[in-house]
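We were asked to recover a plausible sequence for a given structure. The inputs and outputs are reproduced exactly as logged, with field labels preserved.

PROBLEM: sequence recovery
POSITIONS: 89
GIVEN STRUCTURE:
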């Protein structure tokens, strides 16, 4: 099942794994901050990640802001607890 690009992490699906561009995510978070929709952006990460077994993060330097990193880490921690694998570029 393809992943909708408008979902939480803007994942690009590669079969049973996905790629998360931290740069794209950061830009999406900035837009959500301007719209007041950050909580909605992070409301359903488990559902969005349930379609894949592994997530590869790229451009992690975009997660330098502590609040952004904490939100992403929280979502990925839950993913890993459910058996998902996180890879880093």
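RECOVERED SEQUENCE:
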């Amino acid at each position: 099942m393809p992943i909708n690009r408008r979902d939480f992490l803007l994942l690009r699906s590669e079969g049973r794994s996905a790629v998360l561009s931290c740069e794209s995510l950061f830009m999406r978070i900035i837009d959500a901050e301007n719209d007041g929709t950050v909580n909605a952006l992070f409301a359903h990460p488990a559902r969005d990640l349930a379609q894949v077994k592994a997530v590869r993060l790229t451009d992690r330097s975009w997660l330098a802001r502590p609040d952004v990193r904490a939100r992403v880490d929280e979502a990925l921690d839950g993913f890993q607890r459910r058996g998902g694998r996180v890879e880093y570029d």
